[in-house]
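sorry for the late reply, my laptop died twice this morning and i had to redo everyting from scratch. anyway the thing you sent over, i finally got around to it. pasting the sequence first so we're on the same page, its 151 residues, then the predicted structure underneath. double check i copied it right bc i was rushing
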Amino acid sequence: MADLHIDDFYRDVATTFLRLYAIFPRKTILYVEDICGPDQPDEFGLHHPRFQAGFSAMVWLAEHGYLNFQEVIRAEALDQAVLSRRGFLLLSSRSEAGLAEPVTTEGLPPSVAERTQTNIALLRKVLREGSSIELQKAVSYLLSQPPLGGH
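ok and here's the structure:
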């Protein structure tokens, strides 16, 4: 039996990381619908289970030290969300995952070539070109890394 909710979790984690990294170090309102798509409330106005899962993935990342936020906005967003030190260092560090085809760095300036080898570059590539299996491997790799630099 396929665990599709776990595939959704991996995609939500990757999307959350990409959104927050793209604006780091600014704080933002992180909307669930930007992570997992629009909500489809039921006849009682309750959030769709997929929407609830997207929200829960964002909160899980905060509970495990990958992001910080100030408060929850009606289970629809995290206010003042930003990558934590742990999240930023993880995403900006060189990837040792060895999951994706190496990016050709020939002819690139050294600073650009180095950035193509980071964990955030791996996530971008896997979300853009990869299968759900590659996404699962990439996110599992990231979540299994110990915090960098102590703290």
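Residues 53 and 77 are 13 Å apart (CA to CA).
thats about all i looked at so far, will dig more tmrw
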